[in-house]
Amino acid sequence: MRKKRRLGIGQGILLVLLVFNLLPIYFIVANSLKTPIEFATSTLTFPQVLQWSNYAVAWERVHLSLYNTTVIIGVSVIAIVGLSAMSAYAFSKLRFPLQNTLFLAVFGLLLIPGFLTLIPLYLQIKSLGFSDNYLAIILPYIAGGQAFTIFVLKTFFDQLPGEIFEAARIDGAGNFRIFGNVVLPLSIPICTTVAIMNITSLWNDYLLPSLLLNRSNQTVTMALVSFEASTGNYGLSDYGGMMAAYLIASIPLLLLFAFLMRNFVEGISSGSIKM
After folding, report:
1. Which of 150, 169, 166, 56 shows the shortest CA–CA distance to 103?
2. End-to-end CA separation in angstroms for the chain
3. How confident is the model over 241-275, as pLDDT tens digits?
């Protein structure tokens, strides 16, 4: 009886938490279908007449920025995970001079606040002539994502049984073959985990793109801020269009988690990342 009571209390707490987590989703969906007057009247009620035109307005404002963001983050994250995996394998399974010193230097980069490097980074990108194009933001993203990803992947590679590598070397496999045929297949869950972490971090970044990109190459966060700043008509802002734009901008991340959640959970449970 006591166990059933505890189970009921636990389920009740989970239900309350679920409701609190679903409230923001209901809020953004309901208000994305309202007129400015309906939004000003009440933000909690669901509209009787659905204003689907808000989504057309929102799509017109963010569709190019969604494409820009997808290209920038896709290239950046693939490069981050690929380069970091090779570096982590070298730090974990190879032996070379100053190995520990170099790894400590990589780890030390995690301790440097990002805003301290904004001005030097801006000046460097301008001097290289990469301003106002994709490379202006892709290169800093690749460089900035290395330290954390290398640290996480090295921790995972350290946990792999040494017998696997010994057996591969007995079969005549070199480091490149071991990395491609042994390490990468075993590290798909953890690579998916760090990829998703990098994607969510870069997708929500506003400060760096606003400094390095022009309007034609703007990311989705820049487009949302621009939409919010430009909307308004005699004090009645187009909150319905803004909410629709927010919802459209969140759909790629929702789809990403829906398709990769299993690998993400496996990577978290592998013990390499403590959440």
Report:
1. 150
2. 34
3. 889 999 999 999 888 888 877 776 766 666 444 44
Q: Are 74 and 137 in contact (CB under 8 A)?
A: no
The closest alpha carbon to 78, from 163, 198, 185, belongs to: 198
Phi and psi at 133, nearest 5°, equal -145, 175
User: 223, 65 in Cβ contact below 8 A?
Assistant: yes
Contact 195, 257 (CB under 8 A): no
How distant, in Å, are the alpha carbons of 90, 137, 165, 180 from that of 94?
A: 5, 32, 11, 15
68-108 pLDDT tens trace: 999 999 999 999 999 999 999 999 888 888 888 999 898 88
pTM given for the model: 0.85
